[in-house]
Amino acid sequence: MRYLHLFLILGLAWAGHSCASDSFSVAAERTVGQGGSMARFAIVGNTLYTVDNTNLRVFNIGGEQPLAAGTVPIGNNIETIFPMGQNLFVGSPTTMYVYNVTDPLRPVLLSSLPHVTGTPCFRDPVVVQGNYAYATLRAETRNCGNTVVESILSIMDISDLRAPRAVHRLSLTSPYGLGLRGNALFVCEGKNGLRVFDLSNPTAPAQRSYLPEVKSYDVIPLASALLLIGEDGFYQYDYSDLRNLRLLSKIPVTR
Predict the structure, then answer these.
(1) Are 184 and 210 in contact (CB under 8 A)?
(2) Mean pLDDT over residues 104-108, rounded?
(3) How far is residue 222's CA from residue 237's CA, in Å, rounded to a whole number?
(4) Assuming Cys at both sites, which of 4, 37, 83, 250 could form a disulfide with 177, CB separation 3.0 to 4.6 Å?
């Protein structure tokens, strides 16, 4: 989607500015490029990681020219990648994969966790914070035959990266991208709006607000604002009050 490409470029640029100037930045944010949850690429230090349908590809970007450094086969229908510290969380319709990149050019598979309800009819971006990973699984009717499927938010305990486990799930309508920061979790529902949750209990998100009019597809929560790509543009919100998000600005995007 052209909208998502714009969003990722703006998000990475903003994240770079924030990491250079804001006191909130942690070590991981100073070294990891920050894209949306539906991104197909991630930057960790001097290494670029991308995913295609079946592979994780590695590029050394520490020199004057990017250099291909290797390809790691993963599986089928690989869709998203999310970096956290020295680990990459890769999403497919049926499985979350965890790769360690302590040796940046040689990713090592630590574990894989099949989704309880995962089928090829799902789409599943993953975001991570602390000991928990959150993935949205969106059921689609096309090519699903007569299979009964459900759109959900899946919560996984990753305190042991070699043995992650699913701990909770919430039913959703039509989830797309998601983002979290501190106790705030944002879930985009496409044409069905934006949901805002409180993660004071990380395994039991409590919905604090719902914006049905915001046709949202992916988000990046920064310290100063929530960056959101909608159906018709790029938005910034003040989310200091999870019960009352305040629109700061909008950049219209048309087809």
Answers:
(1) no
(2) 97
(3) 10
(4) 37
* Cβ atoms of residues 41 and 59 within 8 Å: no
CA proximity to 203, closest of 175, 174, 168, 244: 168
CA-based torsion, 15, 21, 24, 26: positive or negative: positive
Is the pLDDT confidence value at 119 over 60?
Answer: no
Counts for the chain of helices (H) and strands (E), in that order: 2, 20
User: Tens digit of pLDDT for each residue in 128-161?
Assistant: 999 999 999 887 655 555 454 678 999 999 999 9
pLDDT band at 93 (very low <50, low <70, confident <90, very high): confident
Q: What is the pLDDT of residues 187-207, one digit of tens each?
A: 999 999 999 999 999 999 999
Continuous segment of H or E residues that includes residue 220 = strand 216-221
Cα-based distances in Å from 134 to 73, 79, 157, 237 = 24, 15, 9, 22
Interatomic CA distance for residues 193 and 108, integer angstroms: 37
Q: What is the C-alpha separation between 229 and 41, in angstroms, rounded?
A: 17
Domains of the chain: 2-252 (2.130.10.10)
CB burial of 36-59 (b: ≥16 within 10 Å; e: otherwise) equals bbbbebbbbeebbbbbeeeebebb
